[in-house]
């Protein structure tokens, strides 16, 4: 039987809200995190032209960000682990009438082969993907394997001050800066309502070789 889900509505500027099913029980991938809302709403500002662009979301969870990109005309692949595929499919199905590009879900385990996701996408989207120390190296490998010289990565994360979080964040950005250039998108360019001092959006691209 399907686990009890609850629906989160995410308003859109240009039409009916997205309806995102979440799971009440289970791991981190099952709810729409604030960083996902902030990134989804940032995409709607039009700062990054998405129409007909090739977009890949990593650690998509409920699919909120990727589905929003698809409503803005992007051709999107939302990726996450096997156990989240069913939830992703449900949310794609529930919102497919709003999609003007295309959206599909695929399994992608960080650190593993990414041949089937080539050629490199125009954009990679990541919301709140930094929380376990063990996942940093595989995530960075995946980012390096997926990005071409013209790929822009949009990474949105909530700065957390508890426990090991600051240390993990610091390590992540240190490792990232070996191969990538990072730029922070100023808060005044975020959606005027969906923004927070603790939630940051970075744009990341490969250093020229």
From TrEMBL:
Pfam families per UniProt: Methyltransf_16
Xref: Gene3D superfamilies: Vaccinia Virus protein VP39 (3.40.50.150)
Organism domain of life: Eukaryota
GO biological process: methylation
Entry GO MF terms: methyltransferase activity
GO cellular component, one term: protein-containing complex
Alphabetic keyword roster: Methyltransferase, S-adenosyl-L-methionine, Transferase
CDD domains cross-referenced by the UniProt entry: AdoMet_MTases
The protein's name in its UniProt record: MT21D methyltransferase
Encoding gene (name): Vcpkmt
């Amino acid at each position: 039987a399907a686990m009890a889900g609850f629906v989160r509505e995410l308003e859109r500027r240009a039409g009916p809200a997205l309806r995102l099913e979440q799971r009440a029980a289970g791991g981190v991938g099952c709810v729409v995190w604030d960083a996902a809302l902030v990134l989804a709403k940032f995409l709607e500002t039009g700062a990054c032209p998405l129409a007909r662009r090739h977009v890949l979301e990593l650690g998509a969870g409920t699919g909120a960000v990727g589905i929003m990109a698809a409503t803005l005309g992007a051709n999107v692949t939302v990726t996450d682990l096997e156990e989240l595929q069913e939830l992703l499919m449900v949310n794609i199905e529930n919102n497919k009438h709003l999609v003007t590009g295309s959206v599909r879900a695929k399994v992608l385990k960080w650190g593993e082969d990414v041949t089937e996701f080539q050629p490199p996408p125009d954009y990679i989207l990541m919301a709140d993907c930094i929380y376990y120390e063990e996942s940093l190296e595989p995530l960075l490998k995946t980012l390096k394997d997926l990005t071409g010289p013209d790929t822009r990565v949009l990474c949105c994360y909530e700065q957390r001050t508890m426990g090991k979080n600051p240390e993990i964040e610091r390590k992540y950005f240190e490792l990232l800066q070996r191969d990538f250039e990072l730029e922070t998108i100023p808060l005044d360019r975020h959606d005027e309502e969906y923004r927070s001092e603790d939630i940051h959006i970075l744009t990341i691209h490969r250093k020229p070789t």
